[in-house]
Specification:
about 80% helix; mainly alpha
């Protein structure tokens, strides 16, 4: 795992969580700019997924097991897009809160991925 990429995903996810949490606080639904932020975070999570799979394919091993590592990689990639789709269905402040929660979940999953890999 690339430590810099893990930190980048975690920091951008927390920034997205703060941004969407502030929108929820102001009683605003998710807007186009929020979706651009979600796309940036999702691209970083996709990069993390690709790097993790490539490292596993090259022979590196996760300390706590390959299956759990892959499950966390897929879950971390899916967290923000799933929250984004849910926010489309809920066009109130709760849509923004859902994205904020999904971004926090991604940050926690990234920390756990780091632990699983052996960081």
């Amino acid at each position: 795992m690339l430590d810099a990429l893990t930190v980048a995903v975690t920091v951008t996810a927390l920034a997205l969580a703060a941004w969407c949490g502030f929108a929820a606080y102001r009683d605003q639904p998710t807007k186009d700019w929020h979706f651009i932020g979600m796309a940036v975070v999702s691209v970083l999570a996709l990069a993390q997924l690709v790097v993790g799979v490539v490292q596993l394919a090259s022979g590196d091993k996760a300390q706590e097991g390959t299956a759990i590592f892959i499950a966390y990689l897929i879950g971390s990639f899916a967290a923000v897009p799933a929250a984004g789709f849910l926010s489309l269905a809920e066009r109130t402040r709760w849509g923004s809160a859902t994205v904020a929660a999904g971004a926090v979940v991604l940050a926690v999953l990234e920390v756990r991925l780091y632990d699983i890999w052996g960081g």
